[in-house]
Design a protein that fits this description.
The chain has 264 residues and is mostly beta strands. Helix content is 13%, strand content 33%. The radius of gyration is 20 Å and the shape is elongated.
Length: 264
């Protein structure tokens, strides 16, 4: 793959849904938004005795699904707003199973917890990891926030999966066509990149995209976009994509020299 075969353009950034709830609300609840259903969990509360345990939340969820009028259509996609609640793979599977029993489909998980994000990805769900909620005394004008710690994922990102993280994402596996990786930092694919990858999603053009085999549907760095050539190369090498004034360029990893540092 060569840099000459890529075309630059602009791209808009999609924002996650607002949870629409107050942190004083300690009840698990549903909220309809557009063509999706939000399942909002109360915050963890850092050991607050008034915050519900998993068993209490599980009981609430069963009551919500068993009682009252159901306002959703069959096969509606559910977006789980987990916030800072720590959920493991078993708990996520339990939520998916009980939603499936009423013809709802868990599709996406929003979380500020790394463990929850990893558990959700390994279960095959789209994930957006947000930074923890800022403290009240933090300045709203402080835009120079450091990136979150890298998110390491050992899985195949399948079609329909989307992973978002406010730092660097490292995937130990392939990103299949239809899979999407969006990072505020770098994107490192220790495998084949055949889907969509965006680095520097918050606007940092110094971020990089690296893959052992670069066959993307599309790559993005900040507001720049490049697409793969119509005629694939006869031979592949580990490659690095980076932004220049004229657009996105790609070179062999063995020959790459960082011109001005990365976004990590």
């Amino acid at each position: 793959m060569t840099s000459d075969s890529f075309v630059s353009a602009s791209v808009s950034h999609l924002s996650p849904p607002e949870d629409g709830g107050s942190h004083s609300d300690l009840q698990i609840r549903f909220k309809s938004e557009a063509n999706r259903l939000l399942l909002l969990m109360p915050p963890d509360g850092d050991g607050d005795a008034n915050v519900n345990t998993w068993d209490e939340l599980w009981s609430q969820l069963k009551q919500r699904l068993a009682g009252g009028e159901r306002f959703w259509q069959p096969e509606t996609s559910v977006h789980l707003i987990a916030r800072d609640r720590l959920l493991d793979a078993r708990q996520l599977q339990s939520i998916a199973d009980i939603l499936g029993s009423v013809q709802l489909r868990l599709k996406r998980v929003y979380t500020s917890r790394r463990q929850t994000a990893i558990a959700a990805v390994t279960q095959g769900y789209s994930v957006e990891q947000d930074p923890p909620v800022a403290h009240l005394n933090q300045s709203a004008n402080d835009v120079n926030q450091p990136l979150a710690d890298p998110l390491y994922i050992q899985t195949t990102v399948r079609s329909g999966m989307e992973i978002r993280h406010p730092g660097t994402i490292v995937v130990l596996g392939d990103v299949n066509p239809g899979g999407t990786i969006v990072a505020d930092g770098d994107v490192i694919i220790w495998g084949r990149l055949k889907g969509i990858a965006q680095a520097g999603a918050s606007g940092n053009q110094r971020c990089l995209i690296m893959a052992l085999r670069m066959e993307p549907t599309q790559i993005r760095i900040a507001n720049l976009v490049a697409r793969a050539p119509e005629n694939p190369p006869s031979e592949y090498y580990p490659e690095v994509a980076y932004a220049m004034a004229e657009g996105i360029r790609i070179t062999k990893a063995s020959a790459f020299k960082i011109p001005y540092g990365t976004g990590a």
